[in-house]
Design goal:
- The protein has helices spanning 16-35, 49-55, 61-66, 85-94, 139-156, 171-186, 194-202, 213-219, 231-247, 291-294, 309-318, 338-353, 367-376, 387-392, 414-426, 432-439, and strands spanning 39-40, 46-48, 69-72, 76-80, 104-113, 125-134, 161-167, 252-253, 265-273, 281-287, 302-308, 331-335, 358-360, 381-385, 394-399, 405-409.
- It has 2 domains: 16-170 and 230-318, Bira Bifunctional Protein, Domain 2 (BirA Bifunctional Protein, domain 2); 331-426, Rossmann fold (3-Layer(aba) Sandwich), CATH 3.40.50.
- The chain contains 16 helices and 16 strands.
- Helix 1 runs antiparallel to helix 5 (139-156) and helix 5 (139-156) packs parallel to helix 9 (231-247).
- It is an alpha+beta fold.
- Strand 15 and strand 16 form a beta hairpin.
- The protein is elongated.
- The strands form 3 sheets. The chain has an 8-stranded mixed β-sheet.
- The structure holds histidyl-adenosine monophosphate.
- Histidyl-adenosine monophosphate (HAM) binds at residues 83-85, 114, 116, 121-123, 126, 128, 130, 132, 260-261, 281-286, 304-308, 310-311.
């Protein structure tokens, strides 16, 4: 097979046989978010480039090296979203959601695009589940979003994952810290990568999350922001820790977390696992109290996180966590001849209306290949219809799990009888009392 093109590097197809893993995590994340009072928001895949430059920050790796920027109609510049927070805040402002009372809580499941060096757990198109809470400065809210992320991970069954927290202060404490960093890095200015050489003047904190080995090595002994926090920021961080303790959430203070996006203030956090290789940060987030104002809105504190769904799924797979079972066909109706095929079609419609998963022959094949297909798709029951069955109105239902066969009438009783056979198969092995409890039958 000579395909004319292949998928772009760093992108993946989610094939049907893998989709159930995605359905599992999408169900867990949306149900958990909704239980915490978060409502779904859907935003465009691309935004004005300026939105990301202003919010994520012009000296970040994301903006400087990783954006997929396209021009449309030769006029404006648009960028495929590298993350979900900026677009979500733009949408919150543009749709007047701030007028609907505080706090506003939204969640999203979306694809993101970053032109990064590809490795396991690091793609160019990836998916995030994110939550954003707007309109509260309280450290209770910080603990709440962290507990939401933790609940998702717990419900996914993920273990060996560590919560790291830090505070990166407000612009007031940041000014002092920047001075200290400049002094520190200036001593080895010539060794920094080209981009960090420029960052030294504009935004020395970004040197700390540069991916180049030499910058990481030099940054190891850099001053820590946590030693430069103002009283308010320190108090906020202490309160957050008290709240986490009340919630029984274990954490580690990691003074090295600075996060790779410029909008963060005060609390930052990451959930990290060592079970999936170097790219072990499954979830990252924090406060961004200045972002809404920066985007032209009123001064409004906010915070949130995003979880990489590929990384979550890889972790779940590596740790043998459970995924929802794929739905399988309840009944395959095989048929021989036109009259039987018409009956198969009519019965299928009838059963589907009642909520059953039913298939019949769409290829006009003989009985043998139809039976093979039924087996391949894992049909629970198979029924063969031919001239004889149509004439007598009697057919046989074959249970594919144990090969047993039962008679079934093709009249008005068919749906009920099929339903009974399916329930009996589902509850095989349970005692009668349990069956009547689950099936609602006396
Ligand atoms: P982020 O740390 O850039 O934060 O990304 C969040 C998560 O997305 C990461 O922890 C990781 O699991 C996943 N991720 C990031 N880049 C890749 C990649 N190239 N391939 C696979 N997975 C990746 C943000 O995006 C912020 N918007 C999070 C946030 C929301 N902060 C406040 N609210």
């Amino acid at each position: 097979m000579a395909l004319i093109t292949k998928r772009p590097k760093g992108t993946f197809d989610i094939v049907p046989s893998e989709a159930y893993r995605w359905h599992t995590v999408e169900k867990i994340v949306s149900e958990t978010a909704e239980q915490y009072g978060f409502r779904e928001i859907r935003i465009p895949t691309f935004e004005d480039t300026g939105l990301f430059v202003r919010s994520v920050g012009e000296t970040t790796d994301v903006v400087q090296k990783e954006m997929y920027t396209v021009s449309a109609g030769g006029k404006s510049n648009f960028t495929l979203r590298p993350e979900g927070t900026a677009g979500t805040m733009r949408a919150v402002l543009e749709n007047g959601i701030l007028n609907e009372g505080f706090p506003q809580k939204v969640y999203y499941i979306l694809s993101c695009f970053r032109h990064e060096n590809v490795q396991k757990g690091r793609q160019r198109e990836f998916h995030q589940f994110g939550c954003e809470m707007v309109g509260t400065e309280s450290p209770r809210a910080d603990a709440e979003v962290i507990s939401l992320a933790k609940s998702v991970l717990d419900r996914a069954g993920v273990r060996n994952i560590e919560l790291n927290i830090n505070s990166i202060g407000c612009p007031k404490c940041r000014a002092e810290y920047h001075k200290a960093l400049k002094e520190f890095f200036s001593a080895r200015k010539d060794e920094l990568c080209h981009t960090c050489g420029e960052r030294l003047e504009k935004n020395p904190m970004r040197i700390l999350d540069c991916k180049s080995e030499i910058c990481q090595e030099i940054g190891k002994d850099a001053p820590l922001i946590i030693d430069y926090l103002c009283d308010d920021c320190r108090e906020h961080f202490e309160q957050l820790q008290k709240n986490l303790q009340v919630m029984g959430i274990e954490y580690k203070i990691n003074p090295k977390i600075v996060r790779g996006l410029d909008y963060y203030t005060r609390t930052v956090f990451e959930f990290v696992t060592t079970d999936i290789g170097a790219q072990g940060t499954v979830c990252g987030g924090g406060r961004y109290d200045g972002l809404i104002e920066q985007l032209g809105g009123p001064k409004t504190p906010a915070l949130g996180f995003a979880m990489g769904l590929e990384r979550l799924i890889i972790t779940m797979k590596n740790q043998g966590c459970d995924f929802m079972e794929e739905k399988t066909c309840d009944l395959y109706i095989a048929s021989m001849g036109e009259a039987a095929a018409a009956k198969a079609m009519a019965l299928t419609m009838q059963l589907r209306d009642e909520g059953f998963f039913v298939e019949y022959d769409l290829v006009e094949r003989g009985i043998k290949p139809q039976m093979k297909y039924a087996d391949k798709i894992g049909a629970k029951f198979v029924m063969v219809l031919g001239d004889n069955e149509i004439e007598t109105g009697d057919a046989r239902l074959k249970n594919m799990a144990d090969g047993s066969q039962t008679d079934i009438k093709l009249d008005d009783s068919f749906t009920d009888n099929f339903s009974n056979a399916l329930v009996a198969e589902m509850f095989k092995g349970l005692d009668d009392e349990m069956v009547s409890l689950f099936s609602g039958k006396e």
